[in-house]
Design brief:
The complex is a heterodimer.
Chain A: E1 14-23, E2 26-32, H1 36-42, E3 49-50, E4 57-58, E5 71-74, E6 81-85, E7 95-99, H2 125-128, H3 134-148, E8 163-175, H4 179-189, E9 195-198, E10 214-215, E11 218-219, H5 220-233, E12 237-240, E13 243-249, E14 254-260, E15 275-287, E16 291-293, E17 306-308, H6 309-319, E18 326-331, H7 337-345, E19 349-355, H8 363-370, E20 375-377, E21 379-385, E22 392-398, E23 405-413, E24 416-420, E25 423-425, H9 428-432, E26 436-440, E27 445-449, E28 456-457, H10 467-484, E29 531-533, E30 538-539, H11 540-548, H12 554-561, H13 574-585, E31 604-605, H14 606-610, H15 627-632, E32 640-644, E33 647-652, H16 660-673, E34 675-679, E35 684-689, H17 693-700, E36 713-719, E37 725-735, E38 738-743, H18 748-762, E39 769-772, E40 777-783, H19 787-791, E41 810-815, E42 818-823, E43 832-838, H20 842-853, E44 858-860, H21 863-872, H22 906-910, H23 912-915, E45 920-927, E46 939-940, E47 954-962, E48 967-975, E49 984-988, E50 994-1000
Parallel strand pairs in A: 1-7, 8-9, 8-15, 9-12, 15-28, 17-24, 18-19, 18-24, 19-20, 34-44
Antiparallel strand pairs in A: 1-2, 3-4, 5-6, 5-7, 10-11, 13-14, 14-15, 16-25, 21-22, 22-23, 26-27, 29-30, 32-33, 34-40, 35-38, 35-39, 36-37, 37-38, 40-43, 41-42, 42-43, 45-48, 45-50, 46-47, 47-48, 49-50
Helix pairs in contact in A: 4-5, 4-10, 6-7, 7-8, 11-12, 11-13, 16-21
Chain B: H1 5-13, E1 34-37, H2 41-53, E2 59-62, E3 78-79, H3 86-99, H4 102-106, E4 117-121, H5 124-139, E5 145-147, H6 149-155, E6 171-175, E7 179-180, H7 183-196, E8 200-202, E9 207-209, E10 212-213, E11 216-217, E12 219-222, E13 225-228, E14 231-234, H8 240-246, E15 254-263, E16 273-276, E17 281-285, E18 291-297, H9 309-322, E19 330-341, E20 348-351, E21 357-361, H10 371-384, H11 398-401
Parallel strand pairs in B: 1-2, 1-14, 2-8, 4-16, 14-21
Antiparallel strand pairs in B: 3-7, 4-6, 5-6, 9-12, 10-11, 12-13, 15-18, 15-19, 16-17, 17-18, 20-21
The chains are: A alpha+beta, B alpha+beta.
Bound molecules: flavin-adenine dinucleotide (FAD).
Residues 37-43, 62-65, 69-72, 74-78, 206-207, 235-237, 239, 243, 258-260, 294, 337, 339, 363, 365-369, 415 of chain B line the site of flavin-adenine dinucleotide.
Chain lengths: 1014, 415
Amino acid sequence: MEQPFRLKAGGRIDRTRPLRFVFDGKGYSGYAGDTLASALIANGVHLVGRSFKYHRPRGILSAGAEEPNALVQLGLEPRLVPNARATQVDLIHGLEADPVNCWPNVRRDVLAGLGLAAPLMPAGFYYKTFLASRHLWRHVFEPLIRRAAGWGRVPEDPDPDVYTHRHLHRDVVVVGAGPAGLAAALAAARTGARVALIDEGTEPGGSLLGQTRTLDGHPADQWVAEGREELSHLPEVLVLTRTTAAGLYDDGTTVVAEERLTDHLTSHGGHGPRARLWWLTSKTVILATGAHERPIVFPENDRPGIMLASAARTYALRYGALPGKRMVLFTTNSAAYESAIDLQSRGLRVEAIVDARPDPSGPHVDMAEALGIHIHKGCAVTATDGRHHLESVEIMLLSPDLRTVQAPRKLIECDLLCVSGGWSPVAHLYRHAGGQVEWNAEVRGFTPVPGPGLPRVVGSAAGTHALSQALERALTAGAEAAREAGFGDGSASSAPRVTETDALDGMDLWRVSDQPGDGGRAIGRPGHLSFVDLQNDATAADIDQAHREGLTNVEHMKRYTLTGFGTDQGKTSQVNGAVILARAVGEGPEAARLTAQRPPYTPITFGTLAGRRVGGLLDTVRETALQDIHRDLGKNGGAVFEPVGQWLRPRFYPKAGETMDRAVARECRAARQEAGLLDASTLGKIDAQGPDVVEFLERIYATPVASLPIGKVRYGLVCKDDGMLVDDGTLARLEETHFHLTTTTGNAAWTLNWMEEWLQTEWPDLRVRLTSVTEQWAVLALSGPKAREILAPLAPGMDLSVEAFPFMTWRAGAVAGIPARVFRVSFTGELSFEINVPWRYGPALWKALLAKGAPLGLTPHGTETMHVLRAEKGFILVGQETDGSVTPRDLGLGGMLKTKRDFIGKRGMARSDLQRPDRKVLVGLRTDDPAQVLPEGSPIVEAMSSARPLPMLGHVTSSYLSPMVGRVIALALVKGGRERLGQTLQVPLEDGDLAKVTVVEPVFWDPEGKRRDG
Amino acid sequence: MRHSFFSLIRNALGHHREWPPLWRDPDPKAAYDVIIIGGGGHGLATAYYLAKEQGLGRIAVVEKGWIGGGNSARNTTIVRSNYLWDASAHLYEHSLRIWEGLSRELNFNVMFSQRGVLNLAHSLHDVRDAHRRIRANDLNGIDAEWLDPTKLASYCPLLDISPEARYPILGATLQRRGGTARHDAVVWGFARAADRLGVDILQHCEVTGIPREGGKVTGVETTRGVIKAPKVAIVAAGHAGTLAAMAGFRLPLVSHPLQALVSEPMKPLLDCVVMSNAVHVYVSQSDKGELVIGAGIDPYAGYAQKGSFSIITEQMGALVSLFPRFSRLRMMRSWGGIVDTAPDASPIIGKSPVEGLYLNCGWGTGGFKATPGSGQVFAQTIARDAPHPLVVPFTLDRFTTGALVDEHGAAGVAH
Ligand SMILES: Cc1cc2nc3c(=O)[nH]c(=O)nc-3n(C[C@H](O)[C@H](O)[C@H](O)COP(=O)(O)OP(=O)(O)OC[C@H]3O[C@@H](n4cnc5c(N)ncnc54)[C@H](O)[C@@H]3O)c2cc1C
C-alpha cells in the first residue's frame, strides 16, 4: 500500500501532486509540501540512519533544524549533497536519498556490532590506548578510526551550481516568522520602517502551522495568512523563507543568512543561483527563533520510533502523516499532552501517558483522562525494546528524589514513544552577539539575559510560553525597534485573543536510572545506554566518567564526550548535558553553564559562503590597457603571461617555435643593441600633494626628498620601522607641493596603505592627499641605444638631448600627439624614457612607437627580459633580493640614505645587529661553469659536507643566462660578502651536485654607467 | 593509573567507575618555587618539564578559565618544522622530534599524525621562495621535498592543478614528517603528566597583578588570592601584553583575532595538510572526519574571541577554488582565538626586564607545533635563569639589537 501512514485528509500537503522518491534504494511516494522526513513517516519508514560511534539504528527524532539523527546523502552526481537533514529537505519529484554511515545499507550495516564493544569505547578511549608506536597509530589505528568516523561522502564532481551574496541595509530585521516574529515584523513594518523577516521554513507561521488553536476566533492559519497578506502590501518589507539566519556578526548588527533558492524546485539544478547569502545589516534586530523541545535522557532512548512529542504532532497535523499506530507519551509537563490528544484524534491509539510528575493536573490532564487515556503518574520509561523499530517500553515508578526507580516494571507495547522533557529557548544568535543566557526556573530552560546593545528576543525564544503574551510582547518589541530606528512612536496595536494552552507547569527530570536504589550512580543494565547526544553517541555515563576524570568544566566535558559537537551542534543535547554534568558535581541546573554557541546556526555549504568568488572569479584579474595587444603579438598565441600580484604581465613574446630562452635572448639583445619596449603600466603610481607633502615624504622615504627640484626625479627607498627595505620606486617633483611617486608592481597597494596608515593614524596633522593613479597612466618604457632616435620624431616639441633632458628628470609634452609625461629613468642601464600617457591612449602610443621603432629594431619584451637586464646591472628587485630582512646598506644602497633627517626605519637601522660587519650583503656570483644557471633560492656554503645542520652563508637571489655578458650571471646575499670578493664558495644543487662560484661585484654590464645617456 | 589497552579492559569490567581524575583540583598554596601564568599547552608543557627535567619541586600553573581554553584548544593543529631561518628551523625541529615520541612520553594519545604538510606555490615568486626554503631545510637536517604539479596530483588528487586556475598551482613543498595532532589531548596529556609530578593546576584563577619588590617579582595576585613565588612565567598568548603591563613593561606584540572553522564530519577524503599562502587558506581532515580550515588574521587588534565573517567567505572562496569538489560540504562550526603577533612573526622566549619574571609568548598564529619543544627549552631557561641555546635568538632584546627572525617573507602561511 502506498503511504500506509498517511491520513486521508488534513495537513499542508498537496494531495493532488504526488511525488516519487527513492530512499536507501527503494522507491516511495509522497506529496508536494512534504519534507523527506514526513514522506518517510507516511511510508512507515523509521530506520533512517546509524549512529556515529556504535552504529546503532536511529530514527527521526524531530521535525526541524534540531534533528540529530536523520542525516542523508541527497541527490546524484554532480549535485550530490552530503549530510542533509531529512527533516528540512523539501520533497521533490525524483529525489534520491541514502542513509549515511552504514554499509551496505541501513538495515544490514556491517558495523552494527560495534555497539557490543561499547564498554571498551567509553568517552575518550582513544586517548588511553594506541600509545605503543607512532607508526602503528599513523598506519593502522588512525586509518581505522577515520574510516569508522564521518558521515557522508564528498561529491566526485565539481559543483555545477553558482551561489551569490547580497548585502542589504534594513531598519529592523526579524529572525523567525512564527507567531512572535510575524507580530513583531507587522508592528515594525506598519511604521514604514524597512523590515526584513526571515524564516528557515518553507512558509511563515512557525509553530502555528498545522495547529488546532484559534486567534480572534479564527483558525491560526488564517491569522498567519492575513499577516502575510498585510506584509506583502507594505512597502519596504522583505520576507524571506527557506532562509536560515546563520550568525549574528559585527556587534549584533549584521545577520548573515542563507537562502536556499532552487533545492525545492528540481533535483537537476535550477536556473540562477542555488543559494544566496544575505548580509542584512540593520539598526535593530529582533530574535523570534522559538524553542526546541528537549528529549529526556533514559536508558535506550535512541530507538527508531522515539520522537519528540511536538514533532510527532507536527507530522500528523502539518503533514498528515502518522508516526505510528500505538503510542506512549513520556513527559514532564502538561504542554505535551496536547500532542497525545491531537494524535489520538487523528487515529493514533495512545496506550499510555507516562508522566514523571507524581500529581499532574490541569485542563489537558483532565481532557486526556476524559478521553480514556491511562496516565501513569510519577513514572518514567526505563527501557525500550525493538530491533530496528520500537516495539515496547518498560516503565517504573520514580522514587521521590527522582534519582532511582522502584519496581514493579511494566511493559507497554507501542511503536511510537513521544518524549517531552521541556523546552529550550533558541538563543544561538543572541549568544553570537555576546548575549548571556541563564537558567530560568519558571521556564525550565536557559533564557536570554537582556543587556545593552543586544538584540530584542521575543516569543518562546525569550521563554514566553503563553501565546497571547508572546504576541503582545512581540508587537511591542516590533514597534519599539522601529521607533529606535526612527519610525513610529513605539505604540503597537493590541494582540489577538487566543485559546491558551496549559501553562508550562513541568518538572525537571534530567536523567532516568533503570536500577532501583542505586543512589543515582546507576551503571545501568548491560548494554543499556542513556544517550545525551544522539548524533555523537555521548551517553550520561560518559558525562559521569568525564566528571570522574576531573573534566568538570562544561567545555572540557563537551570536548571529552563530544556532547554537542555534531552537525546539530547539540540543539537537543546541550542543556541536558550541561545539567547532567552540574548534577554530577552536586549542583542544580541553575549552576549549569552552557558551552559557547558557535556560528553557524545550521551548517552552510562552502559554495554559498564562497559566493561568486571562486575559480576564475576568485580574484580580480587586472589588465593593462595593452592586454589585447600583448595577446595578439606574434600571432602565435601572443605573449606568455606571468601572474604578478593581481596582474597578468607578459613574461616574454615567443616567435613561432621559439623557446623561452631563445625569445628572452633575442629580446635582451634587442634592448641592449637597438631598443626594447616594455609595458610598465602595472607599476604602482601615487599622486601626492598638499602643503605638507614634502614633510610627509621625508618621513616616509629613507632617501632625501626636500632637495629635489621641480622637474627632477629621484630614486627612493621605503623602509619599515625595523629598518628593512620594503619598497623602492621613484619620486618626481611636479610642482612645489605635488609629487608623482612610483612603487613596485607587487607592493603598490601595500605601499599606499602603509602611507595612509601613517598619515591617518600617526600624523593626521599633515595636510597631504594621496591618490592611486596606477590605472590613470599607461607607462611604456622605451630603452636602448636607439631610444632617442625612435622617440624624437614622435615628440617634436620635446628636446631630447642629454643637455636639455638629462638623466633623472621629467618633461611634459606631446608624444605621438598624446599629452604625456616622460621620465628619464632607467631600469636597464640603457638610455631610457618612461612615457606616461592617459591609460586609454596606451595602445595608440605602443603602436606609434613600434611603427617608428620596428624598422630600427625596436622589440617588445616582457618581465623575464626586464629581470635579466636589471640583474646585469645589479639592480635589485624588491621581493627577490629582499625578504624583509635586508636593509638598504646590505644592498649597497647605504650611500643614498639620509644622514640627518629623521625617517621611518632610521632608528631601526641604528641598532647593533643592523650594523654588524658580517651581515648578508648583495654580491654577484660568477659560476665556474659559464652555462650553469643556479636555481634561485639555492643556499651558499663554504664547503659542502654531510654534516647537519650545515651553516649557510646565504643564498642565490637571481640567476640568468646573460646573452650580452655571454655567460651565467647571478646575484646573491652572502654573509660578509664584501670581504669575500674573489673567494670561491659552493652552491649545493638538488641533484647532489655542487656548483662552484666566485664572489664578484654585483654589476655585470657597463659598470661605469656610460650607456644611460645613449 | 597508567593508560593502556589493558587498563581500558580492566576499567570496562568496572564500568569505568575507577578512572582517577586526569589532574587534581587543588587549592592554591601560599607559595611555590615557580608560577606559570597560563594553562595553555605551552604553560602546561613548561610545568611538566620543570618538574620532570629541572627537578623543581613546587610548581603551579594558574589559569583564568579552563585549561586549554585559549588558543591551544582553538587552533588548527598543524605541526611542521620546515621554517626558513636557522633559528626557527632548529627550534621547531627540536619540537617535532619530541612530538614523535610524545604520546608514549605522556602516556596519553595526542594523536600525532604525520600525514605530511604541503605548502602550495602559485607564482614564480612562490616557487623561488619554496625552493629556497626546502634547500635551507635540507642543510638544517629537516625533511623537505618539492612536488611538481604531476607528483602533486598523485599525492593529493583532490587539488585542482589546472593551469587555467586563477592562481595556478605550480608545485608544492612537502614535509612528510609534518602533520596534525589532537589539541585537547596535548593540553590534557601535559596537564595529567605534570599533575602526576606534583604540579598544581589551578583553574579559574586569574592573575590580576604581578607584585614586585626592588625590581624582583614576588609572586602573583589572583582572583583566588596572592600566591608567592620567586619565579613567575608569563605564558598567556593573546593576553601576554596585558600581563606584561601588570609587571610594568610593554611588549612588542599586537593581539589579533584569528578564526578557524570545521566542516561536517565526512568519510576520509584528505590525507594530508594543504596550505596556500597566495590564495590564503589551509585545510586538513581530523580523525573525526571534519575538514579543519583556517586562513589569515583579522587586520584589526582585539581581545574578543571572534572575528569578521568576510574573512570566512574569502577563505572559502580560496578553498573551493583549490578543491572544487568541496563546494557542497558545509561549514559546521566556526570560532576565533586571540593571537599575539610580534613584528617578525617569531616568538619571544626568555627573561623579561623584571628579575625572576620570564616570557614565553608571541607564538601568534603558529605556536601549537612548538608546544613540547617550547615547554622543554623554556623550563631550562627558567630553572637556570639563562636562555637555553635554542632560544637565544628569540629573546626580547632582539628588538633592541635588531636581530629579528623575520618569518613573514618566505615561511609560507605562518601556522
Ligand atoms: C584559529 C587558530 C589557528 C591556529 N592554527 C595553528 C596551527 O595550525 N599550528 C600551530 O602551530 N599553531 C596554530 N595556532 C597558534 C597556536 O594555537 C598558539 O600559538 C598556541 O596554542 C599557543 O599556546 P599557549 O599555551 O601559548 O597559549 P594559550 O593556549 O592561548 O594559553 C594561554 C592561556 O593563558 C590564560 N591566561 C591569559 N591571561 C591570564 C591571566 N591574567 N591569568 C591567568 N591565566 C591567563 C588563557 O586563559 C589561556 O588559557 C592557531 C591559533 C588560532 C587562534
